[in-house]
Amino acid sequence: MTAKRHTSFPLSSLYCALLTIGAVSSAAAQTESESIEHITTTASRTGTDSFTQPVTVSSVEEDDIALLSATHIEEVFDNIAGAQLQRGNGQEYLPALRSPVFSGPGACGGLLTAEDGIPLRAAGFCNINELFEAHSEMAQRIEVLKGPGSALYGSNAIHGVVNVITPDTTQGGGMTGFDYGSYGYTRYKLRSGYDAGNTGVGINASVTSDNGYRVDEGLDQEKVNLRHRYEGNQFSVNTGLTYTNLEQDTAGYISGTDSYKDKALAQGNENPEAYRNARSLRLWSKVAMTLDNGDEIIVTPYLRDQDMDFLMHFLPGQPIEKNSQRGAGIQTLWSHELADNMTLQAGVDGEYTSGDLLQYQDSPTVGSAFLVETIPSGRHYDYSVDATVLAPFAELSGDIDNWHWSAGVRYEHTKYDYTNNMNAGRVREDGTTCGMGGCRYTRPESRDDSFSNFSPKLGASYSLSDDLLVYGNLSRGYRAPQATELYRLQRAQSVADLEPVVADNIEIGLKSKGDVLRYNLSVYQMDKDHFIYRDSDYFYVANGKSRHQGVELEMEWQMNEQFALIVAATAAKHTYRHSQLSGEIDINGNDMDTAPRHVANTRLRYTPAENIIAELAWNHVSSYYTDPENQHEYDGHDIVDLRTSWDITPQMTVSGRINNLFDEAYAERADYTSFSGDRYFPGRPRNYMVSLVYRWE
Length: 697
Description:
Layout: H1 11-29, E1 39-40, E2 48-49, E3 56-61, H2 62-68, H3 74-77, E4 83-87, E5 93-97, E6 112-115, E7 118-119, E8 141-146, H4 150-153, E9 160-165, E10 173-181, E11 185-195, E12 199-210, E13 218-231, E14 235-249, E15 254-255, H5 263-267, E16 275-290, E17 296-311, E18 320-339, E19 342-361, H6 369-374, E20 378-400, E21 403-420, E22 441-442, E23 447-465, E24 468-479, H7 483-487, E25 489-490, E26 501-513, E27 517-534, E28 540-558, E29 563-576, E30 581-582, E31 585-586, E32 598-609, E33 612-621, E34 624-625, E35 633-634, E36 637-647, E37 652-659, E38 667-673, E39 677-682, E40 687-696
Parallel strand pairs: 6-9
Antiparallel strand pairs: 1-2, 3-8, 4-5, 6-7, 8-9, 10-11, 10-40, 11-12, 12-13, 13-14, 14-16, 15-39, 16-17, 17-18, 18-19, 19-20, 20-21, 21-23, 22-25, 23-24, 24-26, 26-27, 27-28, 28-29, 29-32, 30-31, 32-33, 33-36, 34-35, 36-37, 37-40, 38-39
């Protein structure tokens, strides 16, 4: 047991960051700079210069994605301040963005994930691991909008938006290559396109196999993007299709305090029977029209078809879950210039989704008499939900002298039509009652639920010079309760009377885009109300409150022709603001669990020649509590990676990586529960990868 810390929010970190930035800015100002424009589609749903936007949008570009050749998207997120993915096993993970790590049913609703602007999942049917359904390994770039994005994207965009942008392969050219790594890791890559002027087609594909370093783990995964393009004088159609397939043998937690430090335990697998299979298909078509008066209209219909089944090895009885969702939606956007330097954008988004979930257990529960009696074999849940979302929105933006401003609002209405496909109540599948107080799993009667919310935002930026601006914004995030929070109940709860989660955010920042020095320094505070959690009676309730404060710095300093320093760092504090007894301790004011105060990724890049790059990366994660009572703690870790790339010819590149260079014993994720104690997903020991890529025009 550790003593509770009483550390205040580290405003000194902001002061030091400002001094550092100021000193480096002064030095950089003596060198003539060229502004570099970075286009983002995530900040406004159209291509705009991210520098002028009064929000924080981080972007990992194609060159960095290729240099990493990440075996897991967690490695990409290390380059984004304020973001953290705690890797589970295989392609699984738990995300964090200006937040503690999201965990538990429905927690995935705190972050919206998308590919090419289309949400990966419907608003009420998110999955905590859903980013493995995006083709991040072969992305053109990955954009992260930090802070509430609900005014543009609706429900789930509370803490931000992750948007994986796939390459436009219809412009011709292509590449092929492979990655070979430790523990039987292989990935084969292909990108090819055909350009016929105003039309084109293309493919972007990868096939991955990983045996894993732990016993009885491994995965096979296939991903493909298909593209078609047509361009007329005032009319264009871009169509994309993404298909992914994952077959994974999963290794679960290892148990015991500091067990990740024991190599034999870290390599073991307490759940060799665990698995996850997932398939996803998305089809979209973006139709853009320019009218005679200069107005632009964009209409994007899309289809989604997904299913997944996995063994819930982390629950008593180890039930199997099968879930699926099929639906169609449409995004619309109208852009009109009201006056010089003033633009109105408006539209309506809508979608319909039919989802279903089945949880069943083949064998009797093994364990205590209480578990055996209260968790019977057979079906636990079997329900379907038809969900409808309708959301009009509008945004007004403009420029006045050195000012850029924007104001927007979105109204969103969500309706769930829930159907219970088996007997209702806290009983077995055959209708008999369980002893010892009743069965664990409760099935509500069929019913309808509706939720509505306004999500406003207001932001402004002021240009201090061509390469330096200050900005600020106010925004509200929102999410409707997830279907699993409403209809997957336990114990004596027969109805979950939940409210939408709402978060109010304020942010100020400073941006520079010089040729020598580029940075974004931001400070934010977000208060979240009605966040949903399970109380001590195992009831879903929506009376949670939390506060999220942080300072973030993303910086690239070209120190000279050969050396560059690249930093993505955050100092943050995430605390509970509501009273709740947990283990006889009131958690009000406590640090939220799995919320490290400091996370930083520092890269020293060396470019001895135009065709050679070497990079030494240091990833730091500070200690954090693993329980809401702040009684158990993970010590944190420091990991160093080394990677290099050599363009042998303009067409051929060979690269290599040593991950965890000093063979540090660490945990990707640390957790504590009252029934299992300390448990971990161990990090991989030192491992290697080599890659070869060949490109053609």
